[in-house]
Specification:
Layout: E1 3-8, H1 13-21, E2 28-31, H2 41-50, E3 53-56, H3 60-69, E4 76-79, E5 91-92, H4 99-107, E6 110-112, H5 116-130, E7 141-146, H6 153-160, E8 172-173, H7 183-190, E9 197-202, E10 209-216, H8 226-236, E11 243-245, H9 251-254, E12 269-275, E13 279-286, H10 290-305
Parallel strand pairs: 1-2, 1-3, 3-4, 4-6, 5-6, 7-9, 11-12
Antiparallel strand pairs: 7-10, 8-9, 10-13, 12-13
Helix pairs in contact: 1-10, 4-10, 5-7
Length: 315
């Protein structure tokens, strides 16, 4: 018997990518809504409650509305918006963080998929706070670079337009007021006492991102070096299909550059630790449309279904 899946918001970037990944799966029956009824509450309600699993690929307000339309207790909601990532009763869709996170995804009816920048940040910081290496009152700062595909249809169109402004050909820092929508989950999920300083950059390429956190070694709870932290991450994430940890002599890191689009098209995430014995840089490299969005959503669905969690994904 095939699983009935509805994608509410199937015309957005994340929804389209989820739909594409299902085309070769014989265990999924996609429920399609008529284009003219995509915003009709009654038709959305009917589709949601006819499904086994509904993906929400919507703005926050519309995602909350869709949850309110859900009447069947059997429907699983996997929300890719920001709306429910820190809400009680919602599993946070990052199974590699701990057995408790994976169990909550497996048994829950409500799963919130992490934000793309938050995925990179939390993959680096959560293991350190969980292990007592990074004090929870540490003044964490983070910078990141991403392709433009995660910025919505209007921004994508602007970058791909023939007469685009010249500033779109350069990296552009934004969230200058330190009010980025991912900050709330970045702080809460990692257990930090302080909201991190966060400076994201959007650049002139389609997909992929690098998220980096800089640390002073003497402000950590115990003496650490890039090598010791690499070993710690390798142990923390051992046997995880979606997370790879670089070797000390990794040729990419050793070359002095980490490209934002270096893992575009791949659904996993790779961690690097560089720097020196005084100042350490933690970096995560992945595809903002993969582990940072649709790939993570499908991974969560696979865990719920009890199949190979990499089914239909590119690892």
């Amino acid at each position: 018997m095939r699983i009935k899946v509805f994608i509410d918001g199937s015309e957005g970037t994340t929804g389209l990518r989820i739909n594409e990944r299902f085309q070769k799966r014989d265990d999924i029956e996609l429920l399609h809504i008529s284009p003219e009824l995509r915003k009709d509450p009654e038709e959305r309600k009917r589709m949601i409650n006819a499904s086994d699993i509904t993906f929400l690929c919507l703005p926050d307000e519309a995602a909350r509305e869709s949850v309110a339309l859900t009447e069947s207790e059997d429907v699983v909601i996997i929300d890719a918006s920001t709306a429910h990532r820190t809400e009680a009763g919602w599993a946070y869709g990052f199974p590699e963080l701990s057995d408790a996170h994976r169990s909550a995804i497996k048994t829950g009816k409500r799963v919130a998929v992490p934000g793309c920048y938050a995925t990179g940040f939390i993959s680096l910081v959560y293991p350190l706070t969980a292990g007592g290496i990074l004090p929870k009152d540490y003044p964490v700062s983070c910078f990141a670079i991403s392709g433009y595909s995660g910025a919505g249809k209007r921004t994508i169109a602007a970058y791909e337009g023939e007469d685009r402004p010249r500033e779109l050909s350069a990296g552009r820092e934004y969230a200058l007021t330190q009010q980025h929508k991912h900050l709330k989950e970045m702080k809460k999920i990692t257990g930090l006492d302080r909201t991190p300083l966060f400076s994201p950059i959007i650049d002139d390429y389609y997909s992929g991102m690098v998220v980096s956190v800089q640390l002073y070694a003497d402000m950590l709870s115990k003496k650490e070096t890039p090598e010791s932290l690499l070993n710690y991450y390798a142990e923390y994430y051992k046997n995880q299909k979606f997370i790879k940890v670089s070797a000390v002599d990794d040729e990419i890191a050793a070359g002095g550059f980490l490209a934002g689009n270096g893992l575009s098209g791949w659904d996993g995430l790779k961690l690097y630790v560089t720097g020196n014995e005084e100042r350490i840089v933690l970096s995560s490299q992945f595809d903002n449309l993969g582990k940072g969005a649709s790939g993570a959503a499908i991974q969560c669905m696979n865990i719920i279904l009890g199949c190979d969690e990499a089914k239909g994904l590119d690892l």
